[in-house]
Predict the structure of General transcription factor IIH subunit 3.
Amino acid sequence: MAEFLQDFESSKDTVVEVNYRLLLVIIETSSSIWAGQGRTTDSLSLQEYLETVIVFINSFLSMDRLNRVLVLAAHNNASYYLYPSAGIASLDTKSLFDSVDMSGVSSAIITNSRKLLAETCGTLLTRDVSGLPSALARSLCYANKFKGLVPPGVRLLARALVINSSPVDSSQYMTFMNASFAAQKESISIDTCLLIEDSSLLQQVTSITGGLYLRKAGHSALLQYLLWFYLPEVEIRDWFLQPPKSSVDTRASCCCHGDMTELGHICSVCFSVYCKFTPICHVCETAFKLPQLGIKK
Ligand SMILES: [Zn+2]
Ligand SMILES: [Zn+2]
């Protein structure tokens, strides 16, 4: 701690910025591909996949002693802390000055993911609701708490990375959008790496927050992919060669059917989108007047 304060004091004279960088990693672990469905010869097992992500996380942590990480698993319809195991409760001003024990991060991720899979192996995979919005909201709460703890004059630069292998259901459009706008307000960019199929919803999330959206076909060379595209901070990404950006599908998903809608009705209270006129908003229960037909003269 004394060493940190000494560095911080000397940095005042040389006008060197001292920043905490917080990486919020959300790993989707409920995909059927880990259970063997749709596996190809280059598919990783869940263990290999987690080990790949751990190498990426340790690379991020080794870049600066003030780098910090939060790892969450989006599993079935909920989210779970993989590191730190106690989540927000583990945050205190004392731990801010300690460097992160990388072997502790690796063992916590492996231990907690094994525990999670053992606890949920008997439950059926639910396709209707994803745990991603819950994990996003939790990670933003963690970043907000962290921000309140950093010493005066030190900035917290947070960003998120979502690695997803499952289809994302558009019925959760509103929760994704709420999380995206909250992240945008706090200047937290959300990067997404999709391993199976594209998602226009996650594409919108990255577009709103200024993150990087990429779909990788299959699992081969996943580590190189993560290191090359997602390890550099947002401000220096232009220095690296990147794949051409695809156009963003900005259509909203309707609350009534979950379909992408180009032209629809929007609730003036909660901003829910409907593809057809509805007299009562399903989300906030506001009653609307029926549209009046024009009176012929
Ligand atoms: Zn609809
Ligand atoms: Zn409403």
